[in-house]
Amino acid sequence: MYLISGAECFDPSPRGQVDVLVAGGQVIAIVEPGTLNVDAEQIDARGKILVPGLVDALTHPCGGGGEGGFGNRTAEIDVETFVRAGVSAPVGALGTDSIGRSLDVLYGNVMGMRTQGLNAFMLSGAYRVPAPSLTGDIARDIYLVAPVVGVGEVAIADHRGTQPTAQELRRLAAETQLGGILGGEGGTVLVHVGAGDSRLALLREAIEGSDLAPSVLYPTHVNRSTALLDEAADWALRGGFVDITVSTTKELIAAGDITAEQALRRLLEAGAPAEKITMSSDAGGSLPVYVDGELVGLTAASPGSLSDLLRALFADHADLFPLALAAMTRNPASALRLNAAGEIREGTRADLLLLDPAHGVDSLMCGGNWLLRHGEYLN
């Protein structure tokens, strides 16, 4: 049992200072400071911020890239990297390469993360349509294979995708949703949106005239351009979720990428409901490195981009902090229909993150167990 006291709590909504009692892997009580007298280890969290463990809706734990050949593949991401980033619930996916990297390998990677304490999930499928699967059937994957909660990232508006039709995307969404309905969790198609001029047109065409809700198709990388971001605001107003990619580079920003902070503000100013906006790191995805305008290599996106953004917002843009935090916790859990992630509530799994306003991630608890204490990795 642990009694965490003295922290400023966001559940992810602001709660002020509260005491949080954890036992048996769950949050047992959230009370006014000093009102509990229990035989538990006392955690003095004064000066810290207590938030839910981060839900990173798009990561590539097996590595990403590969579009330029075998030499352009990024490395696998280990558990410690996610833990030090404050991510308790990474959602793993393949990407462009579902040949050199398979769903079997991704499954093993995700199950390994679960064994080491993380509340990890995965997506079946990849860029390609028809989508590859573990069992030969997308709905069966989601219904029967525990860590699988959806399909993705399926590529549209991108020359690297297989150019699916609206009917193909609609059928995939229906199969994915069915798996989630039967399994009681998951059932969303995460959609990679490339730089093509069609942007979200295929999503609109797939939903129009169907019985599907927009929320079953979940576009990511929507801050790739202002035009795409404006279409994303409309998608959110229709009831869909939209995902901002936090990891970027100065070269990508110069080419049109919008920073996560600016993208969040623009979506809100366009009327997009805050609860429909999410943020992910695209961890393991390949990012270009240029020297004097020449491509000299690739680096990998980091899950730490999420907690880095939170610390910066808390310091300089406090109005955005709770909105960005919800976009990294409650909202992606809702978008992916995850039952045990994204909030601090009585009776829920104890995935808790302590942030130091000056230094970032201080401690991370997953399922009631400390994986990181005061910067020391405990696994």
Automatic annotation (TrEMBL):
InterPro entries the record matches: Amidohydro-rel, Metal-dep_hydrolase_composite, Metal_Hydrolase, Metallo-dep_Hydrolases_sf
Cofactor: Zn(2+)
Database matches in Pfam families: Amidohydro_1 (PF01979)
All copies of domain Amidohydrolase-related, residue ranges: 261-370
PANTHER family: COLLAPSIN RESPONSE MEDIATOR PROTEIN (PTHR11647:SF1), HYDRANTOINASE/DIHYDROPYRIMIDINASE FAMILY MEMBER (PTHR11647)
Protein name: Amidohydrolase family protein
Species name: Congregibacter variabilis
